Protein backbone atom coordinates (compact mmCIF):
# COMPACT_ATOMS: atom_id res chain seq x y z
CA UNK A 1 0.00 0.00 0.00
CA UNK A 2 1.34 3.42 -0.94
CA UNK A 3 1.45 6.01 1.82
CA UNK A 4 -1.21 8.70 1.50
CA UNK A 5 1.38 11.51 1.48
CA UNK A 6 3.04 9.89 -1.56
CA UNK A 7 -0.34 9.65 -3.27
CA UNK A 8 -0.93 13.35 -2.64
CA UNK A 9 2.47 14.22 -4.10
CA UNK A 10 1.76 12.11 -7.19
CA UNK A 11 -1.67 13.66 -7.68
CA UNK A 12 -0.03 17.09 -7.60
CA UNK A 13 2.41 15.97 -10.30
CA UNK A 14 -0.41 14.62 -12.45
CA UNK A 15 -2.40 17.85 -12.04
CA UNK A 16 0.58 20.00 -13.03
CA UNK A 17 2.04 17.94 -15.88
CA UNK A 18 -0.53 15.60 -17.42
CA UNK A 19 -3.96 17.08 -16.73
CA UNK A 20 -3.49 20.33 -18.73
CA UNK A 21 -2.99 18.25 -21.89
CA UNK A 22 -5.37 15.37 -21.21
CA UNK A 23 -8.27 16.99 -19.40
CA UNK A 24 -10.63 14.03 -18.98
CA UNK A 25 -10.65 13.70 -15.18
CA UNK A 26 -12.53 15.76 -12.62
CA UNK A 27 -9.53 16.14 -10.33
CA UNK A 28 -11.46 17.50 -7.34
CA UNK A 29 -13.88 14.58 -7.39
CA UNK A 30 -11.08 12.12 -8.07
CA UNK A 31 -9.06 13.46 -5.12
CA UNK A 32 -12.02 12.99 -2.78
CA UNK A 33 -12.48 9.39 -3.91
CA UNK A 34 -8.76 8.73 -3.48
CA UNK A 35 -8.84 10.18 0.01
CA UNK A 36 -11.80 7.97 0.88
CA UNK A 37 -10.16 4.90 -0.67
CA UNK A 38 -6.92 5.41 1.27
CA UNK A 39 -8.80 5.85 4.53
CA UNK A 40 -10.55 2.47 4.69
CA UNK A 41 -13.54 3.22 2.46
CA UNK A 42 -12.61 1.09 -0.53
CA UNK A 43 -13.87 2.07 -3.97
CA UNK A 44 -14.58 -0.21 -6.93
CA UNK A 45 -11.95 -2.20 -8.81
CA UNK A 46 -12.48 0.06 -11.83
CA UNK A 47 -11.60 3.04 -9.64
CA UNK A 48 -8.42 1.21 -8.59
CA UNK A 49 -7.52 0.89 -12.27
CA UNK A 50 -7.95 4.65 -12.70
CA UNK A 51 -6.01 5.46 -9.53
CA UNK A 52 -3.27 3.05 -10.59
CA UNK A 53 -3.04 4.67 -14.01
CA UNK A 54 -2.79 8.17 -12.57
CA UNK A 55 -0.24 7.17 -9.92
CA UNK A 56 1.95 5.20 -12.34
CA UNK A 57 1.96 7.93 -14.97
CA UNK A 58 2.73 10.60 -12.36
CA UNK A 59 5.53 8.44 -10.95
CA UNK A 60 7.04 8.23 -14.41
CA UNK A 61 7.36 12.02 -14.41
CA UNK A 62 8.55 12.38 -10.82
CA UNK A 63 10.34 9.24 -9.65
CA UNK A 64 8.42 9.28 -6.37
CA UNK A 65 7.96 5.50 -6.46
CA UNK A 66 10.52 2.78 -7.08
CA UNK A 67 10.42 1.07 -10.47
CA UNK A 68 9.31 -2.17 -8.83
CA UNK A 69 6.37 -0.54 -7.06
CA UNK A 70 5.39 1.43 -10.16
CA UNK A 71 5.37 -1.76 -12.23
CA UNK A 72 3.29 -3.58 -9.62
CA UNK A 73 0.70 -0.80 -9.78
CA UNK A 74 0.67 -0.91 -13.59
CA UNK A 75 0.16 -4.68 -13.60
CA UNK A 76 -2.67 -4.45 -11.07
CA UNK A 77 -4.46 -1.85 -13.20
CA UNK A 78 -3.91 -3.98 -16.31
CA UNK A 79 -5.33 -7.08 -14.63
CA UNK A 80 -8.42 -5.17 -13.52
CA UNK A 81 -9.03 -3.82 -17.03
CA UNK A 82 -8.56 -7.27 -18.59
CA UNK A 83 -10.85 -8.97 -16.08
CA UNK A 84 -13.82 -10.46 -18.01
CA UNK A 85 -16.17 -9.39 -15.22
CA UNK A 86 -15.09 -5.78 -15.69
CA UNK A 87 -15.47 -6.02 -19.47
CA UNK A 88 -19.00 -7.40 -19.18
CA UNK A 89 -20.20 -4.47 -17.09
CA UNK A 90 -17.92 -1.54 -17.94
CA UNK A 91 -18.26 1.83 -16.26
CA UNK A 92 -16.91 5.28 -17.07
CA UNK A 93 -13.93 4.42 -14.86
CA UNK A 94 -13.24 1.41 -17.09
CA UNK A 95 -12.94 3.66 -20.14
CA UNK A 96 -10.81 6.17 -18.20
CA UNK A 97 -8.56 3.33 -17.07
CA UNK A 98 -7.99 2.25 -20.66
CA UNK A 99 -7.11 5.79 -21.75
CA UNK A 100 -4.59 6.03 -18.91
CA UNK A 101 -3.13 2.66 -19.87
CA UNK A 102 -2.80 3.85 -23.46
CA UNK A 103 -0.82 6.88 -22.28
CA UNK A 104 1.45 4.86 -20.01
CA UNK A 105 2.14 2.19 -22.63
CA UNK A 106 2.99 4.84 -25.23
CA UNK A 107 5.34 6.56 -22.79
CA UNK A 108 7.18 3.36 -21.87
CA UNK A 109 6.71 0.91 -24.74
CA UNK A 110 6.73 0.57 -28.50
CA UNK A 111 4.23 2.21 -30.89
CA UNK A 112 2.39 -1.02 -31.74
CA UNK A 113 1.61 -1.58 -28.05
CA UNK A 114 0.15 1.91 -27.75
CA UNK A 115 -1.84 1.43 -30.97
CA UNK A 116 -3.35 -1.78 -29.59
CA UNK A 117 -4.25 -0.11 -26.28
CA UNK A 118 -5.72 2.92 -28.06
CA UNK A 119 -7.85 0.67 -30.25
CA UNK A 120 -9.20 -1.06 -27.15
CA UNK A 121 -9.94 2.25 -25.42
CA UNK A 122 -11.82 3.73 -28.37
CA UNK A 123 -13.69 0.44 -28.87
CA UNK A 124 -14.72 0.61 -25.22
CA UNK A 125 -15.90 4.20 -25.72
CA UNK A 126 -17.94 3.16 -28.74
CA UNK A 127 -19.44 0.10 -27.03
CA UNK A 128 -20.52 2.20 -24.04
CA UNK A 129 -21.89 4.97 -26.26
CA UNK A 130 -19.75 7.63 -24.60
CA UNK A 131 -19.17 9.33 -27.94
CA UNK A 132 -22.92 9.98 -28.18
CA UNK A 133 -23.00 11.84 -24.86
CA UNK A 134 -22.33 15.02 -26.84
CA UNK A 135 -25.82 14.78 -28.31
CA UNK A 136 -27.28 15.35 -24.84
CA UNK A 137 -24.99 18.18 -23.76
CA UNK A 138 -26.29 21.71 -24.13
CA UNK A 139 -23.71 24.41 -24.60
CA UNK A 140 -22.37 24.96 -21.09
CA UNK A 141 -21.37 28.46 -20.17
CA UNK A 142 -18.28 29.55 -18.29
CA UNK A 143 -19.87 28.26 -15.08
CA UNK A 144 -19.87 24.70 -16.39
CA UNK A 145 -22.72 22.17 -16.74
CA UNK A 146 -26.09 23.18 -15.30
CA UNK A 147 -27.17 19.76 -14.02
CA UNK A 148 -25.78 16.45 -12.80
CA UNK A 149 -26.86 14.85 -16.07
CA UNK A 150 -24.99 17.51 -18.05
CA UNK A 151 -21.95 17.02 -15.81
CA UNK A 152 -21.76 13.29 -16.54
CA UNK A 153 -22.35 13.87 -20.24
CA UNK A 154 -19.52 16.41 -20.33
CA UNK A 155 -17.13 14.02 -18.58
CA UNK A 156 -18.10 11.18 -20.91
CA UNK A 157 -17.53 13.45 -23.86
CA UNK A 158 -14.07 14.42 -22.65
CA UNK A 159 -13.07 10.79 -22.17
CA UNK A 160 -14.36 9.95 -25.65
CA UNK A 161 -12.55 12.92 -27.18
CA UNK A 162 -9.17 12.11 -25.64
CA UNK A 163 -9.51 8.40 -26.47
CA UNK A 164 -10.39 9.13 -30.10
CA UNK A 165 -7.72 11.82 -30.54
CA UNK A 166 -4.97 9.58 -29.18
CA UNK A 167 -6.14 6.67 -31.32
CA UNK A 168 -6.14 8.76 -34.51
CA UNK A 169 -2.70 10.27 -33.86
CA UNK A 170 -1.11 6.97 -32.83
CA UNK A 171 -2.68 5.11 -35.75
CA UNK A 172 -1.54 7.63 -38.34
CA UNK A 173 1.99 7.81 -36.98
CA UNK A 174 2.23 4.01 -36.93
CA UNK A 175 0.53 3.60 -40.32
CA UNK A 176 -2.47 1.59 -39.14
CA UNK A 177 -6.20 1.84 -39.83
CA UNK A 178 -8.34 4.13 -37.68
CA UNK A 179 -11.59 3.29 -35.90
CA UNK A 180 -13.38 6.60 -36.42
CA UNK A 181 -16.33 6.95 -34.03
CA UNK A 182 -17.00 10.56 -35.00
CA UNK A 183 -17.00 13.41 -32.50
CA UNK A 184 -18.08 17.04 -32.56
CA UNK A 185 -15.66 19.78 -31.53
CA UNK A 186 -14.89 19.64 -27.84
CA UNK A 187 -14.90 23.42 -27.50
CA UNK A 188 -18.68 23.46 -28.08
CA UNK A 189 -19.09 22.46 -24.43
CA UNK A 190 -17.33 25.60 -23.23
CA UNK A 191 -14.19 23.91 -21.94
CA UNK A 192 -11.61 25.93 -20.05
CA UNK A 193 -9.21 27.28 -22.67
CA UNK A 194 -6.31 27.02 -20.22
CA UNK A 195 -6.08 23.29 -21.00
CA UNK A 196 -4.65 21.95 -24.23
CA UNK A 197 -7.08 19.11 -24.88
CA UNK A 198 -8.81 21.20 -27.55
CA UNK A 199 -5.46 21.68 -29.33
CA UNK A 200 -4.92 17.92 -29.21
CA UNK A 201 -8.29 17.35 -30.87
CA UNK A 202 -7.50 19.99 -33.51
CA UNK A 203 -4.41 18.02 -34.47
CA UNK A 204 -6.43 14.81 -34.72
CA UNK A 205 -8.95 16.56 -36.97
CA UNK A 206 -6.19 17.47 -39.44
CA UNK A 207 -5.31 13.80 -39.99
CA UNK A 208 -6.54 12.70 -43.45
CA UNK A 209 -8.65 9.70 -42.44
CA UNK A 210 -10.19 8.87 -45.82
CA UNK A 211 -7.65 9.69 -48.53
CA UNK A 212 -8.51 8.81 -52.16
CA UNK A 213 -5.93 6.01 -52.38
CA UNK A 214 -7.08 4.86 -55.83
CA UNK A 215 -5.99 8.14 -57.45
CA UNK A 216 -2.34 9.09 -56.73
CA UNK A 217 -2.85 12.66 -57.96
CA UNK A 218 -5.89 13.20 -55.75
CA UNK A 219 -4.00 11.55 -52.89
CA UNK A 220 -1.12 14.02 -53.27
CA UNK A 221 -3.52 16.96 -53.28
CA UNK A 222 -5.32 15.56 -50.24
CA UNK A 223 -2.10 15.20 -48.25
CA UNK A 224 -0.82 18.55 -49.47
CA UNK A 225 -3.94 20.25 -48.11
CA UNK A 226 -3.57 18.38 -44.82
CA UNK A 227 0.02 19.63 -44.49
CA UNK A 228 -1.04 23.20 -45.21
CA UNK A 229 -3.85 22.96 -42.63
CA UNK A 230 -1.41 21.62 -40.07
CA UNK A 231 1.15 24.36 -40.69
CA UNK A 232 -1.58 26.93 -40.01
CA UNK A 233 -2.02 25.60 -36.45
CA UNK A 234 0.02 27.10 -33.61
CA UNK A 235 0.69 25.27 -30.33
CA UNK A 236 1.88 26.85 -27.09
CA UNK A 237 2.52 23.71 -25.02
CA UNK A 238 5.84 21.95 -25.70
CA UNK A 239 4.40 18.43 -25.64
CA UNK A 240 1.53 19.38 -27.96
CA UNK A 241 4.10 21.12 -30.16
CA UNK A 242 5.98 17.84 -30.53
CA UNK A 243 2.71 16.08 -31.41
CA UNK A 244 2.15 18.81 -34.02
CA UNK A 245 5.62 18.32 -35.49
CA UNK A 246 5.34 14.53 -35.45
CA UNK A 247 2.08 14.68 -37.39
CA UNK A 248 3.60 17.08 -39.92
CA UNK A 249 6.56 14.77 -40.50
CA UNK A 250 4.19 11.80 -40.89
CA UNK A 251 2.33 13.65 -43.65
CA UNK A 252 5.66 14.64 -45.24
CA UNK A 253 6.80 10.99 -45.32
CA UNK A 254 3.65 10.00 -47.18
CA UNK A 255 4.17 12.77 -49.71
CA UNK A 256 7.72 11.53 -50.29
CA UNK A 257 6.43 8.02 -50.92
CA UNK A 258 4.10 9.45 -53.59
CA UNK A 259 7.04 11.32 -55.17
CA UNK A 260 5.27 14.62 -54.58
CA UNK A 261 7.35 17.61 -55.66
CA UNK A 262 7.15 19.86 -52.62
CA UNK A 263 7.09 23.57 -53.25
CA UNK A 264 9.63 25.83 -51.56
CA UNK A 265 7.01 27.01 -49.05
CA UNK A 266 6.30 23.40 -48.06
CA UNK A 267 9.98 22.65 -47.52
CA UNK A 268 10.30 25.85 -45.52
CA UNK A 269 7.33 24.76 -43.43
CA UNK A 270 8.93 21.38 -42.72
CA UNK A 271 12.18 23.12 -41.76
CA UNK A 272 10.20 25.36 -39.41
CA UNK A 273 8.55 22.31 -37.85
CA UNK A 274 11.94 20.72 -37.29
CA UNK A 275 13.47 23.78 -35.66
CA UNK A 276 10.44 24.14 -33.38
CA UNK A 277 10.69 20.48 -32.36
CA UNK A 278 14.32 20.80 -31.34
CA UNK A 279 13.63 23.74 -29.03
CA UNK A 280 10.56 22.09 -27.47
CA UNK A 281 12.39 18.81 -26.88
CA UNK A 282 15.28 20.56 -25.15
CA UNK A 283 12.93 22.47 -22.84
CA UNK A 284 11.03 19.31 -21.86
CA UNK A 285 14.30 17.46 -21.32
CA UNK A 286 15.61 20.23 -19.07
CA UNK A 287 12.42 19.84 -17.00
CA UNK A 288 12.96 16.04 -17.01
CA UNK A 289 9.54 15.42 -18.52
CA UNK A 290 9.93 12.06 -20.31
CA UNK A 291 7.17 12.50 -22.88
CA UNK A 292 7.51 9.75 -25.46
CA UNK A 293 7.85 12.04 -28.48
CA UNK A 294 10.96 13.86 -27.25
CA UNK A 295 13.14 11.13 -28.73
CA UNK A 296 10.99 9.96 -31.64
CA UNK A 297 10.34 13.45 -33.01
CA UNK A 298 13.98 14.55 -32.95
CA UNK A 299 15.02 11.27 -34.58
CA UNK A 300 12.47 11.87 -37.34
CA UNK A 301 13.81 15.40 -37.74
CA UNK A 302 17.28 13.99 -38.44
CA UNK A 303 15.87 11.56 -41.03
CA UNK A 304 13.78 14.23 -42.76
CA UNK A 305 16.63 16.76 -42.88
CA UNK A 306 18.80 14.13 -44.56
CA UNK A 307 16.04 13.28 -47.04
CA UNK A 308 15.43 16.93 -47.99
CA UNK A 309 19.17 17.08 -48.66
CA UNK A 310 19.57 20.82 -49.20
CA UNK A 311 22.22 23.09 -47.76
CA UNK A 312 19.67 24.60 -45.37
CA UNK A 313 18.37 21.26 -44.15
CA UNK A 314 21.85 19.80 -43.68
CA UNK A 315 22.89 22.93 -41.79
CA UNK A 316 20.19 22.18 -39.21
CA UNK A 317 21.48 18.66 -38.59
CA UNK A 318 24.03 19.77 -36.02
CA UNK A 319 21.29 21.32 -33.88
CA UNK A 320 19.11 18.20 -34.10
CA UNK A 321 21.99 15.82 -33.36
CA UNK A 322 23.05 18.02 -30.45
CA UNK A 323 19.51 17.88 -29.07
CA UNK A 324 19.47 14.09 -29.41
CA UNK A 325 22.78 13.90 -27.54
CA UNK A 326 21.42 16.14 -24.77
CA UNK A 327 18.27 14.04 -24.44
CA UNK A 328 20.38 10.89 -24.16
CA UNK A 329 22.65 12.48 -21.54
CA UNK A 330 19.64 13.45 -19.41
CA UNK A 331 17.50 10.32 -19.60
CA UNK A 332 20.14 7.63 -20.27
CA UNK A 333 17.75 4.90 -21.45
CA UNK A 334 18.22 2.12 -23.99
CA UNK A 335 15.73 3.85 -26.29
CA UNK A 336 17.51 7.23 -26.26
CA UNK A 337 20.88 5.56 -26.82
CA UNK A 338 19.46 3.47 -29.68
CA UNK A 339 18.01 6.58 -31.34
CA UNK A 340 21.30 8.49 -31.02
CA UNK A 341 23.39 5.59 -32.34
CA UNK A 342 21.08 5.03 -35.31
CA UNK A 343 21.00 8.74 -36.15
CA UNK A 344 24.80 8.81 -36.18
CA UNK A 345 24.86 5.83 -38.53
CA UNK A 346 22.52 7.64 -40.92
CA UNK A 347 24.55 10.86 -40.84
CA UNK A 348 27.79 8.95 -41.42
CA UNK A 349 26.21 7.03 -44.31
CA UNK A 350 25.25 10.36 -45.87
CA UNK A 351 28.78 11.70 -45.35
CA UNK A 352 30.28 8.61 -46.99
CA UNK A 353 27.96 8.88 -49.99
CA UNK A 354 28.70 12.56 -50.48
CA UNK A 355 32.46 11.92 -50.16
CA UNK A 356 32.19 9.28 -52.90
CA UNK A 357 30.24 11.69 -55.11
CA UNK A 358 32.83 14.42 -54.50
CA UNK A 359 35.62 12.06 -55.56
CA UNK A 360 33.74 11.30 -58.78
CA UNK A 361 33.24 15.01 -59.50
CA UNK A 362 36.92 15.71 -58.91
CA UNK A 363 37.87 12.90 -61.28
CA UNK A 364 35.48 14.24 -63.91
CA UNK A 365 36.55 17.86 -63.50
CA UNK A 366 40.24 17.40 -64.13
CA UNK A 367 42.41 20.46 -64.73
CA UNK A 368 40.87 23.28 -66.76
CA UNK A 369 43.40 24.46 -69.40
CA UNK A 370 41.99 28.00 -69.36
CA UNK A 371 41.91 28.40 -65.60
CA UNK A 372 44.78 30.88 -65.71
CA UNK A 373 42.84 33.37 -67.84
CA UNK A 374 39.34 33.11 -66.37
CA UNK A 375 38.61 34.62 -62.94
CA UNK A 376 38.29 31.99 -60.21
CA UNK A 377 34.80 33.07 -59.20
CA UNK A 378 33.51 32.07 -62.66
CA UNK A 379 33.78 28.42 -61.69
CA UNK A 380 31.39 28.65 -58.77
CA UNK A 381 27.67 28.11 -59.16
CA UNK A 382 25.45 30.92 -58.01
CA UNK A 383 24.34 30.57 -54.41
CA UNK A 384 20.79 31.16 -55.62
CA UNK A 385 20.87 28.23 -58.08
CA UNK A 386 18.67 25.33 -57.02
CA UNK A 387 20.54 22.20 -58.11
CA UNK A 388 17.50 20.04 -57.44
CA UNK A 389 15.96 21.55 -60.59
CA UNK A 390 18.61 19.71 -62.61
CA UNK A 391 19.04 16.63 -60.45
CA UNK A 392 15.64 14.89 -60.66
CA UNK A 393 14.97 12.43 -59.22
CA UNK A 394 17.06 12.85 -56.10
CA UNK A 395 18.58 9.55 -55.06
CA UNK A 396 18.13 8.51 -51.46
CA UNK A 397 20.98 7.90 -49.07
CA UNK A 398 19.94 4.53 -47.73
CA UNK A 399 17.69 5.54 -44.87
CA UNK A 400 14.26 5.52 -46.50
CA UNK A 401 13.48 2.34 -44.58
CA UNK A 402 12.81 4.83 -41.80
CA UNK A 403 10.92 7.30 -43.97
CA UNK A 404 8.95 5.38 -46.55
CA UNK A 405 7.18 3.03 -44.16
CA UNK A 406 4.80 5.29 -42.19
UniProtKB/TrEMBL annotation:
A biological process term (GO) from this entry: response to xenobiotic stimulus
Pfam families reported in the protein's UniProt record: Fungal_trans (PF04082)
Molecular function as annotated in GO: DNA binding; DNA-binding transcription factor activity; zinc ion binding
Top-level division of the source organism's lineage: Eukaryota
Keywords, alphabetical: DNA-binding, Metal-binding, Nucleus, Transcription, Transcription regulation, Zinc
Coiled coil start-end: none
Record-annotated Xylanolytic transcriptional activator regulatory domain positions: 11-140
Classification via CDD domains: fungal_TF_MHR
Annotated InterPro entries: Metabolite_Synth_Reg, XnlR_reg_dom
Protein name, UniProt field: Xylanolytic transcriptional activator regulatory domain-containing protein
Source organism phylogeny: Eukaryota, Fungi, Dikarya, Ascomycota, Pezizomycotina
Amino acid sequence: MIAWQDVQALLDVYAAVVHPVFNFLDLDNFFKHCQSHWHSNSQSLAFEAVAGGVIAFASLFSGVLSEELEMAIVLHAKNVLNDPAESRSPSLNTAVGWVLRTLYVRATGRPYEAYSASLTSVSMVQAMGLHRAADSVQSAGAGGPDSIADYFNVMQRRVATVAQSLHILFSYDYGRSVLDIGLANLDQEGSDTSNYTIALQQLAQVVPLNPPTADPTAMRQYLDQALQDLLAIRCSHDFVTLMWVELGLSIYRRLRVLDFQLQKMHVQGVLELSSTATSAALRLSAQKRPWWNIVSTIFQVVCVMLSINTRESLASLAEAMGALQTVNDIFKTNLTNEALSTARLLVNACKKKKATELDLLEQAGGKDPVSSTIPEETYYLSAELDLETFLRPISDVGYFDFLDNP
